[in-house]
Each structure stands twice: as structure tokens, then as C-alpha cells.
Amino acid sequence: MEKKQTRMKRALKLRSKIKNVNAVRLSIHKTSLHIYAQIISSDGASTLASASTTQAEIKSTLEYTGNIKAAAQVGKFIAEKALAAGVTEVAFDRSGFKYHGRVKALADAAREVGLKF
Fold first, then answer.
1. Per-residue pLDDT of the chain in tens (117 residues, 90 and over written 9)
2. What is the topology classification, in CATH, of domain 3-113?
3. pTM for this entry
4. From CA 85, how far away is CA 22, in angstroms rounded?
């Protein structure tokens, strides 16, 4: 299988497990230049909070947006927004991306701020 197909297969399995738990989820997506994060309600109908390296308030503090430091910054920012929205516990939807590098940095930074997965 191609790389994208295997990632989508992993994402489908992960999302079906999260759907059974019926939890609010922290969904991420990454490209080579940016990383995006969203807190999505348990029914999937609305986005409660979002953060990405394309936002001016995050981008202005970074030298480069496609590295671990940028992912950690997004993790801190999304966790602060989630706590402000009243969300303390989420299911981590990594969209099929392997849990290392920028994905791990984002998750660890969100946990440091107080978000529980």
C-alpha cells in the first residue's frame, strides 16, 4: 500500500475506537510546513477550539513552523483554549500519524498544561 493509504487505514481504526467511547477528541493534522490541532465535540458536529502554526499569534513567536518546537507551542496553545472552553479530558486522534516527533511533542505539551488523554 502507499504511504497515504496506510495512514488513512490507521486513522479509520483509531476514529472508530474513539467513536465507541463517545469522547471529545483532540484531532491533529500535519504537513511538512505546519501542524494543526482541533478540539472536536463528542458528536462531531462542532469545533470547540483550534490552533495551528498558521495563526499569527503562534507564528510570530517561531523561527520555523515545521519542527518539534512549533508543535509543542501549538500543543500548549490548544490545551489552554480547551481548558478555557471547559474541556479537561479528550481522546487523542492523531489522524493515522505515527506517535513520534512532532505528534508526540504536541501531545506532551498539551499534557503539561493540564489536558488529560
1. 699 999 999 999 999 999 889 899 999 999 999 999 999 998 889 999 999 999 999 999 999 999 999 999 999 999 999 999 999 999 999 999 999 999 999 999 999 999 998
2. Nucleotidyltransferase; domain 5 (3.30.420)
3. 0.90
4. 18
